[in-house]
Amino acid sequence: MSVDTRVNWGGVALRNPVLTASGTFGYGMEFAPFFDLTRIGGIVAKSLTLEPRIGHPPARIAEVPSGMLNAIGLENVGVDAFLNEKLPALPEGVTVVASVFGTDIESYAEVCKRLAGSRVAALEVNASCPHVKSGGMEFGQNPRVLAELVRATRQAASVPVAIKLSPNVTDIAELARVCEGEGADALSLINTLQVLDVDLKTRRPRLRNTLGGLSGPAILPLALRMVWQASRAVRIPVCGIGGIQSGEDAAKFLLCGATAVQVGTANYTNPRAALDVAEGLEAFAESQGVTRLTDLIGGLETEPA
Ligand SMILES: Cc1cc2nc3c(=O)[nH]c(=O)nc-3n(C[C@H](O)[C@H](O)[C@H](O)COP(=O)(O)O)c2cc1C
Questions:
Q1: How many CB atoms lie within 10 A of CB 90?
Q2: Rounded to the nearest whole angstrom, what is the distance from the C-alpha of residue 72 to the centroid of ligand 1?
Q3: What is the rounded distance in angstroms from the CA atom of residue 166 to the CA atom of residue 128?
Q4: For position 14, what pLDDT does the model report?
Q5: Which residues pair with residue 292 across a beta bridge?
Q6: Atom 15 in ligand 1: which residue has the minimum CA distance?
Q7: Distance CA 254, CA 252 (A)
Q8: Whole-model pTM?
Q9: CB-CB contact of 259 with 20 (8 Å)
């Protein structure tokens, strides 16, 4: 039996539903020695700003049970170097999603404009960044600011736009509806959870930035809950992210309503993780007699048997 693995994520045709998560897979070519990048659904590159950024000083990552903390501070080469150096290096058959980030609405929109006309298949707008005018509150935490961000990036983009939501909110369904209402083509969730850990020897935070983001297997059930709530609230497709390490993990996200998934922290321990997840998902479907992966989407049974 062969499984039809194709999905459509907001107008982006993917050969299978497994992408790599922004910030955990460089600009793609770093992982080319490990597997053929055309065998996964696509890659989401590191979030890009107008100008290059060096990010926060170390310590910027720390290990915790079942996950990691990071406060990289969005180090990136800048949108122009991405277009001139990183994107051309990727083989043609690789589906590339560019991640966009800014400190105000105008700079997000300008990055989207510069990416217009390039070969990127879609833009993912990283809404988990502090909004300078809101005194450090994340764009994705304020429905009014989020609406403005979606409108501006949608208008500036020439390809489908996915909004990547912050999990540091009370009502994810409300924010998902705001994105849909303003014309977003798709959603991605979740980004990292805001956390703090302490070094008892020094009595200082483990990360130089004090606060960081938690990712990895620890956040999987929380991500499933949010994907389930968001996907029930909107009709646009959702990409599920959070702690995915295996095809079975990915299948759980599809059952909770995700159309696609992204693999993040797992790339640090297994550089072939995304391919393993894609192959594992197909094998899982085959073992269940499922002929199309789309048949799994939203299949979670919540009524008593
Ligand atoms: C070191 C590191 C850097 C990250 N950088 C970004 C980034 O630049 N843009 C973004 O949208 N998400 C970024 N993320 C968040 C991931 O894309 C993903 O949403 C999150 O880690 C949850 O997935 P995971 O548990 O599979 O890692 C980063 C995560 C990590 C661990």
A1: 19
A2: 10
A3: 5
A4: 98
A5: 4
A6: 191
A7: 5
A8: 0.98
A9: no
Q: Are 237 and 260 in contact (CB under 8 A)?
A: yes
Question: How far, in Å, from the CA of 23 to the mean position of ligand 1?
Answer: 5
Distance 166 CA to ligand 1 centre (A): 11
Q: Which atom of ligand 1 is nearest to the CA of 47?
A: 8
Hey, where are the domains in the chain?
A: 7-56+75-200+215-296
Residues whose beta carbon lies within 6 Å of some atom of ligand 1: 21-24, 46-47, 68, 70, 72, 74, 99, 126, 164, 191-192, 215-216, 219, 241-244, 263-265
**With DSSP H G I counted as helix, E B as strand and the rest as coil, what are the percentages for the chain, rounded to 5?**
35, 20, 45
- Look-up: residue for tokens 């020094």? 202
Give the percent of the chain with pLDDT over 90: 95
Q: What is the pLDDT of residues 197-219, one digit of tens each?
A: 999 999 999 999 999 999 999 99
Q: Which tokens hold the place of 145?
A: 């600011």
Amino acid of residue 127: A
Catalytic: which of 112, 129, 179, 256? Answer: 129
Distance CA(43)–CA(26), nearest Å, equals 9
- Ligand 1 atom 5, closest CA: 23
Indicate if 239 belongs to the active site. Answer: no
Contact 71, 48 (CB under 8 A): no
CATH number of 7-56+75-200+215-296: 3.20.20.70
Q: How far apart are CA 8 and CA 55, in angstroms?
A: 34
d(CA 29, CA 250): 24
Query: Can you tell me the distance from the alpha carbon of 90 to that of 95, in angstroms, rounded to the nearest whole number?
Result: 9
Alpha helices by DSSP H, 17-86: 79-81
